[in-house]
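thought: fold this chain, then report.
action: predict
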Amino acid sequence: MTTRTAREEPGGPRIPLRGRATELAFIEARLDALGRGEGGIVRVGGPAGIGRSRILAEAAAAARRRGIRVFEGAADPDQQFVPLGPLLEGVLAGEEPLPGAQRLRDLATTPGQRFWLLQEMGERLREAARRGPLLVVLDDLQWCDDLTLLSFHTLAAGLSAHPILWLVAVRGGSVAPGVRTTLDRIRQAGAHELVLGALGDRAIARITEDVLGAPAGPDVLRLAHRAQGVPQLLVELLGSLTEEAVTIDDGTARLSAGVPAPRELPSVVRRLDQLSSEARELVRTAAAVGGPVTVALLAELLGRSSAALITAVRESLDADLLAESGDRLVFRHDLIREAVEAGLPLSLRQALRRQAAGLPPGSAALPVDRPGPSAGTAGPGDAAAEVERLRAAARELAATAPGPAADRSLKALELTAADAVERPRIIAETIPLLWQTGRAAQARELGSSALAAGGLGPEDEARIRLALARLAVPFDFCEAVRQARAGAALPGISVAARGQLLAMLAVGLSMSGEHAAAEQVAAQAWESAAAAGDRTAEATLTTVRSAVSFHRMDLSEAFRQAERSAALADALGVSTSLWVPEALWHALLSHTTGRTAQALAAAEEGIRITREQGRTAATRMWLMTRSRVLLEAGRLTDARADAEAASEATDDPGPGNFADVTGRYVMMRVALHTNDQSAARAYAAKARRMRSDGAPVVRHFGSWMLALMADFEGRPDRAMAELDEVMTSPAADRPAYAGLVDPADAPVLVRLALRAGAHERAAQAVALAERRAVLNPDLAFLAATAAHARGLLDNDLAPLVRAVRLYEDCPRVLARASALEDAGRKLAATHRSEAVPYFDTALTLYVRAGAERDVVRVRRRLRAAGVRRRPSTAGLDGAWPELTVAEIRVVRLVARGLTNRQVAEDLSLSPHTVSSHLRRAFTKLDVASRLELARLVMHRDSGE
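observation:
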């Protein structure tokens, strides 16, 4: 007897194709027909891992042996935003690409050129087919972008009389509507269908012998049959066996010590990595549970509602990892479940299984399969006890897990009779939990229904109105004021309730821009809060005090109060805060006074914590806040990405006032700086809606946005007219910066006013900027804005140069670039050569920011100064001058082979943000695929 270990060939030759003789014969027949001048379409289908890509590769190899010209392209789930990417890669990146590659790429990325693109590509393929037959291979059709799908079936139909064979592969199961339409159309056009099924026993035995290097014994064959004839799973299962697991005795491969423990399989890991973090978490939890699992059980284990899992479940089904079996979810294959489970720590698997079987006593969660008594089946005492247990659990979870807390509070409400005394209080407890977890519309409906039903006592009505006022703060400032005012006016309510309602009223008035009224109400609220010993109301009112000091331009006091309010709220726990969170105001204040690094650090920490806790509403507010900071820091792409991410899947039960003064304002400014005229017009329309809002601050933001738009269009008179209401409003409620939304806007307003001949308004803006700087001498940023504004008003070089110097240590990139440009413009009138360094530095900053409109303007100034050399690239990445720092980080990770979701996790970004960065990098670098990008990275990093 001879014994040796099984042969391992991880990097060896490809295993022969087994069990597909019939399918290969069909392909050969179609290639024969192609050689005779007959084209057509062949669709190869089947589930994941069944070997579709291998059949396509074998077909391409067979075609090349016959001298047929082959074009090969493949789609990628992370590449769907690249227009025509898979098809362009196929026809332009092969050994013998179609001519005119750049022309086709330009047409693909230029709006409105779809007709000419199809015409051009069709003509190129037609010319190539006249010289000989063509095979066009397109893999993973289910991931193709809409333009690729349209081009494929349009070209296939239009070129059907030519010797072109289209060979496409698509995964079985659920596909997107656009893919389904394409499949229906090619079927109607006479496409041949080749559906791959599971391998037979003989093929399984042959592949096992190929992988292990010897015929398999009965025990190895039993293990191999666990792959159920799926080639990819079979090869990976056999390849995962270690030297100790398999030995070859007398020429037969046998298991050395029984069936080995499950291991992770590469294809399963890849498919998991392509999922969102929510879907990946769901699949892993299902694997740990074991058998078929209900969505309700998964929701309980994950601490979320069943409705919140809709997207994750759909994604897992579409990825062919899970399937539906009645009302339960099952894994598509046992090996998939085992491979996913193998990647989880043993302690976690055991904990999840114990939790699924029945949670231990004392847990804040309900037993999963043993629900608590319902109002209809339990006695009054049992139901009341269960309701109190659920409310206690919700309170315990609220600070760190508001999602599960909201679900428990809703369950308590469900178990409470409509006429129960405690029902209004439970409603008031549930509303803020729903709002925090992104279910604001549901929260508002719950509160509004309770108020409409009537019959509430004053204290209960006050609690519900307080909850609705808290809910309204991010969405509708005026509604927050209305609810808080109505609640505070109720007779006979407790001192504590009145104090919190007055505090909320003060917050609403302050955010609305009614500063004088906010200060008066805050004074009343302090008395009630002090009488009740309410630290929560104290934290909120301290924020209002900070805002009042800010309005008075006493920024040192504003900071002191903001730090105190943030510390109070942090000590109390965010779930008790009347305004979520007080730290948000501190970050905005830091940003407005030029402390950008501090503001960014606070925003990033806020985003991280709220995401971990599932506080959807707070995460959106932090994202919008960070977008404001990134805008002024000259990171336009990042600012736009944050604003876009915050606007996704909104559940705003109102106009979205906080978004008005953050995200929408940012998007408008970015559009103006990047010369995106269509986006600018779209946000100008939103600004017109803002002009009619009941909140003065929203009207002021809308007016400023419309003034900027009018200036963009070259209408300075119109710009001044847009600001009439702001600059003539009562002094007590006029914004601290005379209608502006940031100190750095003072020079902008001066420039607008001077162009319109409104010298008095320009002087007014300068006076306020200088007063602000005098009152806050320790803030160099404010001194810089004042000097900049003064230099413009007086047309004086000295203050402009002083502004440039003061801005040097300030991270406000756009403000600094503007001062440099204005100083250069003044110098150019008399000393051209001295102006050039100012213009060059401004140009470098604008280029780094991605401010295309400003770049064009400064380059024009340089040409007027007689300079035609390229600007200095100091401070830029020498290898990647086209990209922002954030785009470079994303590009490098993608070039290493990471998916968008992996990049998002690595950089702590959302997948949407990564996609936004990558889409713009593709456009700037003029590449159409991840493969092209990887080649470009290798080329540039090598210094060639």
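thought: worth noting. The CA atoms of residues 177 and 183 lie 10 Å apart.
final: tokens above.
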